[in-house]
Automatic annotation (TrEMBL):
<keyword id="KW-0378">Hydrolase</keyword>
<dbReference type="Pfam" id="PF00857">
    <property type="entry name" value="Isochorismatase"/>
</dbReference>
<dbReference type="InterPro" id="IPR036380">
    <property type="entry name" value="Isochorismatase-like_sf"/>
</dbReference>
<feature type="region of interest" description="Disordered">
    <location>
        <begin position="59"/>
        <end position="78"/>
    </location>
</feature>
<dbReference type="GO" id="GO:0016787">
    <property type="term" value="F:hydrolase activity"/>
</dbReference>
<protein>
    <submittedName>
        <fullName>Isochorismatase</fullName>
    </submittedName>
</protein>
<dbReference type="InterPro" id="IPR050272">
    <property type="entry name" value="Isochorismatase-like_hydrls"/>
</dbReference>
<dbReference type="InterPro" id="IPR000868">
    <property type="entry name" value="Isochorismatase-like_dom"/>
</dbReference>
<feature type="domain" description="Isochorismatase-like">
    <location>
        <begin position="8"/>
        <end position="182"/>
    </location>
</feature>
Amino acid sequence: MTSPRSLTALIVIDVQRAFDEWEAAGKRRNNPDAVARIADLLKAFRASGAPIFHIRHEGTRPTSSFRPESSGYAVKDEAREAPGEPVIVKRVNSAFIGTDLESRLRAASLTTLVICGATTNHCVETTTRMAGNLGFDTHLVRDATWTFDRVGPDGDAHSAEAIHAMTLSNLNGEFARIVSTDEVIAAFGAA
């Protein structure tokens, strides 16, 4: 990361209890330490006084695990916002659509975004693509995001690891720089 801390924001996407419920129901994910890495990022950003934006998904379908009245809507304790850290609620995959995220970032002159959260190939990917398209210097933290196994349209099974890796490959270079938690924390320590 080349931008100073004063121009850098952490975007924490959808770290909500619905994902714990999915796992409890038998869905398999990759990157089991991702939430711990998100906690590490939160600690580093808070220690440096850099801005943090929490994104929360609000499901609109009747069967959504993310409906506001459901237990899955709540944020996981490890990623809970601190006083003064904004929570932006979205209803689609991108944190930029139907929210004031972009205007908040521009108003604060934030040019570099560090993105983490869930899931890699849905809301994280969509938000990362849009951030890159909007001209932000975007960094996606590879070990602070995760996804789940999926079955493709032809019935082919795809592992969470393969989906995660392909998503990172698709985003790398054109939409974002793919980084690790340690790289981000080291950059903050050197700033």
